Recover the amino acids of this structure.
């Protein structure tokens, strides 16, 4: 079936550097995407979202880029901090069977920030 | 409440037993989702409620799994005749309604079937 996937299972960066986490999706009908951060023992925490009519959206220290041509999503974290260490998931809202709001998650990327 | 609340936080049960997992969504959120997450994997969709009705239950793995939301707020995920393969973290999320709005997750219930 169609799914969302991540290229890199683990990403190690130095504190203060910028991080880029990538995600590929395969459902061209999806119109909404979300990045979540999940720390050990906790539920996923919303970071930033983007609708398919946008190419870029910025938040505080984070930027999401959407390339619909190649079905690619990325999360950029500026000045990465130790507190950013976590697993990051991209999620895709699939439009099937009418108005369902089902989110499909990828397998995640572990971001390890080295001090 | 301030966020999505799930109880219990941990549940250990014997194979073959029945379990119920509870989710209290954010007040006023009409959409509620259940997901299951195995170690090292992303959350896997189980079921989605809009109000009291299950709008999409395509993720329930088999008929041992059932969920209800009788008053459009609290939801209960019920698992009959539990199997060791049901061991996972069960996550609940809620959002304000239909359309593209962010979903807020609870801390999850870690279910262990022994």
């Amino acid at each position: 079936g169609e799914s969302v996937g991540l290229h890199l299972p683990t990403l190690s960066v130095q504190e203060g550097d910028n991080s880029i986490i990538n995600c590929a999706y395969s459902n061209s009908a999806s119109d909404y995407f979300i990045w979540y951060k999940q720390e050990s023992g906790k539920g996923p925490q919303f970071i930033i979202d983007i609708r398919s009519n946008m190419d870029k959206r910025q938040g505080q220290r984070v930027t999401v880029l959407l390339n619909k041509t190649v079905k690619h999503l990325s999360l950029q974290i500026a000045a990465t901090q130790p507190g950013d260490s976590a697993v990051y998931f991209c999620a895709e809202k699939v439009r099937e069977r009418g108005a369902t709001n089902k989110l499909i998650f990828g397998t995640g990327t572990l971001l390890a920030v080295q001090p | 409440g301030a966020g999505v609340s799930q109880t219990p936080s941990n549940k250990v049960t014997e194979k073959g037993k029945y379990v119920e997992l509870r989710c209290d969504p954010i007040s006023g959120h009409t959409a509620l989702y259940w997901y299951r997450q195995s170690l090292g994997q992303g959350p896997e969709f189980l079921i989605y409620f809009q109000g009291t009705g299950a709008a999409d239950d395509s993720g329930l793995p088999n008929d041992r799994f059932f969920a209800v939301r009788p008053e459009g707020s609290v939801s209960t995920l019920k698992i009959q005749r539990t199997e060791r393969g049901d061991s996972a973290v069960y996550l609940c999320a809620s959002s304000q309604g239909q359309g593209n709005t962010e979903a807020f997750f609870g801390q999850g219930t870690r279910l262990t079937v022994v």
